[in-house]
């Protein structure tokens, strides 16, 4: 067997083993480097994503607010005209009775104070500040006569609405003026 020598006694065996261990070490270093680069890219990608989300959060909140405003406006458009919110303070939801009755001309300038401290004058002043074109009829009869005159000039729907308002007003006045009953002591039964 000429040419074939014992491989175990070959001087090149140590060199081959050394090159294999170097290749293995370089392979591990390359794998660790590649893994480190991938982890760094993953972390950088997460950081960039967080940055963009943070940048867009202001715009998202603006869009949310705009969306809510548009939804509110859409709901307001669907409401009947009498149910839409008024920006200025108004008194209890009055029926259209005052618009149907014959109107009297306005009295004086609206920039001045009310004519007196009476509730009627204060309410008229407040209503005229909200709508200077509002007129109030002159009702000179007694309560029942004035109510009959109003009923004759109103539609059935407006009159029913006015009756409903009067009912609520009466309940309010009754609640406002009610006095608590005094409790009477109940005598103890002797037994």
Please tell me about this protein's structure.
The chain crosses the membrane at residues 30-54. This is HG2A protein. GO terms for molecular function: cytokine receptor activity; macrophage migration inhibitory factor binding; MHC class II protein binding. This protein has 191 residues and is mainly alpha-helical. Among the domains are: 27-57; 133-176, Orthogonal Bundle (HLA-dr Antigens Associated Invariant Chain, Chain A). Helix content is 61%, strand content 0%.
Kindly state the mean pLDDT as a whole number? 74
CATH architecture descriptor name of the domain at 133-176: Orthogonal Bundle
The best one-word shape is elongated
Helix percent reads: 55-70%
Strand content: under 5%
SSE-based structural type: mainly alpha
Order of helices and strands: HHHHH
Low-confidence stretches: 101-106
Strand element count: 0
CATH fold group of the domain at 133-176: HLA-dr Antigens Associated Invariant Chain, Chain A
CATH class annotation of the domain at 133-176: Mainly Alpha
**How far apart are the termini?**
136 Å
The CATH homologous superfamily of the domain at 133-176 is termed MHC class II-associated invariant chain, trimerisation domain
What is the makeup of the main sheet? none
Query: So how many helices?
Result: 5
Rounded to an integer in angstroms, the radius of gyration calculated over CA atoms is 45 Å
């Amino acid at each position: 067997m000429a040419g074939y020598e014992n491989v175990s006694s070959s001087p090149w065996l140590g060199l081959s083993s050394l090159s294999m261990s170097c290749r293995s070490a370089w392979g591990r270093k390359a794998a660790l480097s590649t893994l480190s680069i991938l982890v760094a890219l993953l972390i950088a990608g997460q950081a960039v994503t967080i940055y963009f989300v943070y940048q867009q959060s202001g715009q998202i909140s603006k869009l949310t607010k705009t969306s809510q405003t548009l939804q509110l406006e859409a709901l307001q458009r669907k409401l009947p005209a009498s149910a839409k919110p008024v920006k200025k303070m108004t008194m209890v939801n009055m029926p259209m009775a005052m618009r149907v009755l014959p109107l009297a001309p306005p009295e004086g300038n609206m920039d001045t104070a009310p004519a007196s401290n009476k509730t009627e004058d204060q309410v008229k002043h407040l209503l005229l500040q909200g709508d200077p074109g509002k007129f109030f009829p002159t009702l000179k009869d007694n309560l029942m006569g004035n109510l009959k005159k109003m009923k004759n000039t109103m539609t059935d729907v407006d009159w029913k609405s006015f009756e409903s308002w009067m009912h609520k007003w009466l309940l309010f006045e009754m609640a406002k003026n009610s006095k608590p009953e005094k409790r009477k002591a109940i005598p103890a039964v002797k037994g």
